[in-house]
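User: Some background: our group keeps a shared notebook of sequences we're curious about, and every so often someone picks one and asks for a predicted structure to add to the entry. Today it's my turn. The entry only has the sequence so far, pasted here. Could you supply the structure so I can complete it?
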Amino acid sequence: AAPASPDAADGPPRASATVPALVEPSGSSPGAAPTTTPPRAPGRAGGVPPLILVVDDEASVCEALQRVFLSGGYRVATADSGVVALQVMMREPPDLVLLDLRMPIMGGLEVLGTMRSEERLRRVPVLVLTADTQKESIRAAAALRVAGYLAKPADPRELLARAAKVVGARSSQKA
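Assistant: Of course. Here's the predicted structure to add to the notebook entry:
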């Protein structure tokens, strides 16, 4: 399927079981420009921007995060469930997953467990972005080797800085 346009009339595309939602960064980002220059996406082989998969069952969260990461020069895919996220990841493993923990049917910890058991997804870095700040959840996510744990709502500059750090470290490990 062809990448969707980020300025589609009905909003940013969302992943489904049959169509991956992938939006390419453009020269201008939608929404208000930040007051400081956000960190830019580290380069990927062949000049292709890194891919971030945003996984959250709340459409408004996915849309807001999509705008943030597009402004940072990333390609962005979204998934509204853990099941859809795993399907998207198996088609194209992302450079980073931004994962909510509390979702119906398949929660974030279950997604993480599945990722760590799949050879193709085992080393994909994950930043948890969730309203769940219980110590048990933080420990469980840490045991599944997350790259970071952020509480909602997160500052867009912090998200871009953390993404740049994680993706940059991953790129240098691949080189």
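Suggested note for the entry: The beta strands are 51-55, 75-79, 96-99, 126-130, 148-151. Residues 131 and 153 are 8 Å apart (CA to CA).
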